[in-house]
Amino acid sequence: MSRPRLTSLRRLVPAFLIGLSVLLAPALVMAVDDPSEMLPDPKQESRAEAIGSQLRCLVCQNESIEDSSAGLARDLRRVVREHVAKGETNKQIMDWMVDRYGNFIRLSPPLSVGTLLLWSMPVLALLLGLTLAFFAYRRRAAAPAAPPPLSDEEKARLAKLTKD
């Protein structure tokens, strides 16, 4: 009777380990590479992390500099912490980064004509395609069918015209 209980326990161990690794993975990803990067003041450190979470890693391009372990992200984290330690405001730090790297450095860029055009382009392309398909269908439907056969009178007139 202890055999079935042991077998079911063996089946649960891999599931438990997978579940544990899924739960611990986010904590490992959010870790700073080097503890010496951190600021001694916890308030300044949390502010630097908040700013860093809004900045895009230029290597990974889909992660913030706080989440990335790329060398450039590490350098940008250090720069952000230097500016925070100097006492600059969040806006000043973001403006410095945007001046240096452009709006691409922001994970969520500000709303502008360019971003509106970028986000609306798929919808505009779909509308253009549907419009072209509509007019092509309409033109094909409006095209005349094969002409009706000639009547006897028209055949006689055609024969007379071709004789002359």
TrEMBL record:
Main location: membrane
Domain CcmH/CycL/Ccl2/NrfF N-terminal: 23-161
Pfam families found in the cross-reference section: CcmH
Biased composition (Basic and acidic residues): 152-164
Transmembrane segments: 116-137
The keyword Nuclease appears for this protein: no
Gene Ontology MF, one: metal ion binding
Role according to the record: Required for the biogenesis of c-type cytochromes. Possible subunit of a heme lyase.
Name of the protein described by the UniProt record: Cytochrome c-type biogenesis protein
Origin species: Acetobacter tropicalis
